[in-house]
Amino acid sequence: MQIPANPLVVQLDIPAYTYGIAILMLVMVLHGVCLLQIAKRYEVKAYLYLAEKKYTAVTTVFYLSIFLLLITHLFEILIWGLFIYSFGLIAHWSQSVLFSGSAYTAIGFMDDTLPEGWRMLAVIIAFSGLFSFAWTASVMISMTKSFRKAYTRIHMHKLNLPQEIIDRFE
Predict the structure, then answer these.
(1) Is 134 helix (H, G, I), strand (E, B) or coil?
(2) Helix (H, G, I), strand (E, B) or coil at 54
(3) CA 73 to the chain's CA centroid
(4) With contact defined as beta carbons under 8 Å apart, do 96 and 84 qualify?
(5) How many helices (H) and strands (E) does the chain have?
(6) Residue 46's closest CA among 146, 119, 163, 130?
(7) If residue 83 lies in a helix (H) or strand (E), which one and from where to where?
(8) Which of 3, 8, 50, 101 has its Cβ near the most Cβ atoms within 10 Å?
(9) What is the DSSP letter of 162?
(10) Please, are residues 102 and 79 in contact by the beta-carbon 8 Å criterion?
(11) Cβ neighbours of residue 64 under 8 Å, at least 6 residues apart?
C-alpha cells in the first residue's frame, strides 16, 4: 500500500493507527467469540462428565480446550501477518507472520522492518497480544476449577478412598 505523501501523516504514523486499530478490533472480536465458544463447551462437558464420574474425560476436554486456545492465538497472528503482507509492508509472507508473532507475543525478537508511517503498528499488535493473553488467562483460570476437581478425584480413586468420601469432596 502506498503511504500518503503528506509528511505529517507519515511522521504521526496515521496509517498504522487507522488500520491497526481496525484490525485490533477485528482480532479482539474474533478472540472473544472463540473464547466464549471454547469456554462454554468446556464448562458444559466438564459439568456433565463430573456428574457421570468420568474424571478422565474432564481432563481430556480440558487439554483439548487449552489446545484450541493456542490455535486461536496462532490464527490471530496469521491475521496480523496477512494484513502486513497484503499491504506490502513486509515483502515475504513468512516474514510477515514471523514479525506478527514477534510483536503479538511482545517478545520482539525481530527488528522493526516496517516502513515509515507504519512503525506504531508493532505496538498495536503487541497490545492485541497482551489483551488476548490476559483474556485467555482469565478463561483458563475459570476452567481450572472443574479440572482440579476431576484430577483430585482421579487420585482419590487411586488411593482407594471410600466412595462416600470422594462424593463429599468439593
Answers:
(1) helix
(2) coil
(3) 3
(4) yes
(5) 6, 0
(6) 146
(7) helix 55-86
(8) 101
(9) -
(10) no
(11) none
